[in-house]
Write a structure and sequence with these properties.
alpha/beta, Transcription Regulator spoIIAA, four-stranded parallel sheet, about 45% helix
Length: about 375
């Protein structure tokens, strides 16, 4: 297996990073001289090779790692039309890191139209694991496995106890059963919140919708389950699905269905992350030559663990000048016979790792698996 590795002293930021943008845009992408380490039967053989980027995506990864953020964004915007989803995910993550929700949402609409699939959901990356201001101003209500009258009452009381200018986040992901009284009460509560123009955020709602769809397909289905599903479609702003179901409801029960009303749709947000079940090293922020504490943590962690598992979900950027040291730590792990897994990193970091050959040193599980 041939592994690219830096020559000592060749880990500086490319010179183009320090030149005016007008000059940089006319120059070739930054390149590096690498060392290829071939771990064959005869031992480690070191050969010198060129590490120039081979595609626009490669170039973006190096520009971003070199701190040339505006150039990276400009290049990304220019290559979206090529249809490479890697570029789209890199721009999604760049907007999330910079807190640019408006641009993120517009990109999400374009992505959905281009690829005819659901786009990533907005979630600001602040690089320190702390709650964002949006999260801090949100009240969370997690519903239990059985949605009955008691659970619905808890939902009603929770919404009533939350200030009107505060978003209410409702987690439906734990629901496994819905009884008639719970469905009826929940539909009324969501309808009242909608009419009061409460700001709602929902997670795990797809699971509840699938459950209600199964109940509604039953021979002796109950009208309250249909009505809850209609209210969920209304709450989510899914008018076409609402109207299709309303027609089926009218035919099935021979009564007039609820009417659609134009209101602000609830925001669909990611579910609550699972509590960590492992002893992964969790790094955050930027990894740069001036801030190398993360690499020191990695070295200390690797020295005391036989399996090196590093969570990079809160890392916003790995600086180009830190990559050689990063690879050095990983090579030490490999030399000691340890397995390495890097997970949760954003698309910009993932492409940098791929360009620099880190995918040959460690198993990579990025935030965007596709």
């Amino acid at each position: 297996m041939a592994l690219p590795f830096f020559k000592k002293g060749k880990d500086k930021v490319p010179a183009a990073a320090h030149k005016p943008a007008a000059v940089r845009e006319t120059e070739s992408p930054p390149t590096e001289t690498l060392l290829t380490m071939d771990m064959g039967a005869g031992g480690i053989v070191v050969e010198e090779t060129s590490g120039a980027p081979q595609s626009p995506v490669d170039e973006v990864a190096i520009l971003y790692a070199s701190g040339q953020i505006e150039m990276a964004e400009h290049l990304l915007q220019g290559i979206l039309t090529a249809g490479d989803r890697r570029a789209w995910h890199m721009l999604f993550d760049l907007y999330a890191i910079q807190g640019r929700e408006k641009e993120f949402e517009q990109l999400a609409l374009d992505y959905a139209m281009r690829f005819e699939t659901s786009p990533p959901v907005w979630q600001k990356m602040n690089g320190n694991g702390a709650a964002t201001p949006q999260q801090a101003q949100t009240a969370s209500l997690e519903l239990p496995g059985l949605l009955d009258k008691t659970a619905a009452g808890t939902l009603r009381d929770g919404i009533a106890a939350t200030a009107k200018n505060t978003a209410v986040r409702i987690d439906f992901s734990g629901i496994a059963m819905v009884d008639e009284s719970g469905a009826d009460e929940c539909a009324r509560i969501l309808s009242a919140a909608r009419k009061a123009r409460r700001k709602l955020q929902v997670s795990g709602v797809d699971r509840l919708i699938a459950l209600l769809q199964d109940l509604n397909r039953a021979t002796h289905s109950r009208a309250v389950h249909w009505l809850l599903l209609l209210e969920l479609y209304q709450t989510l702003g899914q008018q076409e699905k609402f109207e299709d179901l309303a027609v089926d409801y009218a035919v099935r029960f021979e009564v007039s269905p609820p009417s659609w009303s134009e209101v602000q749709a609830a925001e669909v947000v990611p579910g609550k992350p699972a509590e960590p079940l492992d002893n992964a090293l969790r790094l955050a922020g930027e990894i740069t030559p001036a801030n190398d504490s993360a690499l020191q943590q990695l070295g200390s962690y690797a020295a005391t663990h036989s399996e090196v598992l590093v969570d990079l979900a809160q890392v916003t950027r790995v600086d180009y000048g830190s990559v050689s040291q990063f690879i050095g730590v990983l090579m030490q792990c490999l030399g000691s016979g340890k397995s390495i897994t890097l997970r949760g990193h954003n698309a910009l970091i993932h492409e940098l790792f791929r360009v620099m050959g880190i995918d040959q040193l460690a198993q990579l599980i990025p935030h965007h698996p596709d």
